[in-house]
Amino acid sequence: MTKAPSATDLASALIQCPSVTPKEAGALAYLERQLSPFGFEIHRPVFSEPGYPDVENMFAKISGGDGPHLAFAGHVDVVPTGDEALWTLPPFSGEVKDGLLHGRGAADMKGGVAAFVAATLRYIEAHGEPKGTVSFVLTGDEEGPAKNGTVKLMQWADDRGEQFSDSIVGEPTNPNQMGDMIKVGRRGSQSGTLTVSGKQGHVAYPHLASNPVPVLARLVERISAEVLDHGTDFFQPSNLEFISMDVGNETWNLIPKSASARFNVRFNDLWNAEKLEAFVLEHAREHLPDDAFTLALTLESDGSEAFLTRSESLIGRFSKAVEAITGRTPELSTGGGTSDARFIKNYCPVIEFGLVGQTMHMIDEHVAVADLEQLADIYYEFMLQYFER
User: Fold this and answer.
1) From 18, 88, 100, 210, which residue has the greatest number of CB atoms within 10 Å?
2) Is the dihedral of CA 345, 166, 352, 125 positive or negative?
3) What is the block-wise mean pLDDT of the chain (389 residues), using blocks of 10 residues?
4) Active site residue: 142, 166, 180, 352, which one?
């Protein structure tokens, strides 16, 4: 049998594929070459949607009969490098230097993908096919619009009759050192635009117009000051942040008819899109000065719900694996932004655990080789428990 590669070798080779969203750039092709000799069934569906780039994805699985289906999930796409001249080492070098693996995607999240692939191949090398199924759910659209990636890949697999028992997403979850944190849920995210409309006019005759700009500015200030909640047992407080104010006025002597402010809300399980819409409209109307102005609120369709995984079996087993390898008891957290776990949670319990994320998306992104190999050890230890060898 082909010898299982190390996590470091896999990660280095993946980093050398410049797979900036939505480019595959050889990353999935490389993984297919690694998995095929071990007997994986491999599919590479390409999904499309008008207005968005096509994205190539991968679903690979190996089955050894009846038993649970464990899905490792992640992405091989990366964010742009920025000015490559600012990097100490070339961003797609995948070079190991002074115990660190350097390159774009080392932390987020080619290192995580490499670790769970290495752990699975090591498991097969040592024990043969699992008493159940292991699959890899891999996309090239996590750092992008997320329209043609995991959301469609999971539906594609479900349509084929795949029944997932549990999933682990290899996103970087540890703040400072390996073993710090397991993500057991995520806050929701909802974007929207609040528009105030008045009456257009000449700036020299303001009494003949109704200027929406100062009205919108007051609404933004007052809505921003409102407290959405104080958090829950597993979630931090929700927060609404205005991120831009737009008028589109190119002249100096025109009072515009309307002005808009864009916002994003990161919310816990006390909220959903409907409640947030009602909250914003209620507080906006409360501070609207008179009938000369009207309000409009639109919510973006790509919002995600808050979720919390409550599988004691999955969380307990994985925590034991982390403790066995690192000696640390991981914190169970729902902090941070969003991930593709928001799509996977519709099909099975899902948790996230990966590398230390201190350099993700930064110039000179890197991870410690020792952390990378330790992550593979954690995944391997979990598989031993999960498939009860």
Assistant:
1) 210
2) negative
3) 92 98 98 98 97 97 95 98 97 98 98 98 96 98 95 98 98 97 96 98 98 98 97 95 95 97 96 97 94 96 92 96 98 91 97 97 98 98 90
4) 142
Contact (CB, 8 A) for 238 and 268: yes
Give the tokens for residue 191: 């974007």
Three-class SS of residue 337?
coil
Distance of CA 214 to the CA centre of its chain: 36
Catalytically annotated residue among 24, 56, 77, 171: 77
Contact 344, 162 (CB under 8 A): no
Q: Please, how many CA atoms are within 13 Å of residue 237, restricted to the half-sphere of its CB?
A: 8
Read off the amino acid at residue 166. Answer: D
As to burial, measured by CB atoms within 10 angstroms (0-12 exposed, 13-18 middle, 19+ buried), residue 211 is buried
Residue 336: its pLDDT value, please? Answer: 85
Q: Is 142 a catalytic residue?
A: yes
Cα–Cα dist 338/305, whole Å: 10
φ, ψ dihedrals at 380, nearest 5°: -65, -45
pLDDT of residue 1: 62
Q: In degrees rounded to 5, what are phi and psi of residue 102?
A: -105, 145
Clarify whether 108 is annotated catalytic. Answer: no
Q: What are phi and psi of 188, to 5 degrees?
A: -80, 165
Q: Tokens 């941070």 label which residue?
A: 336
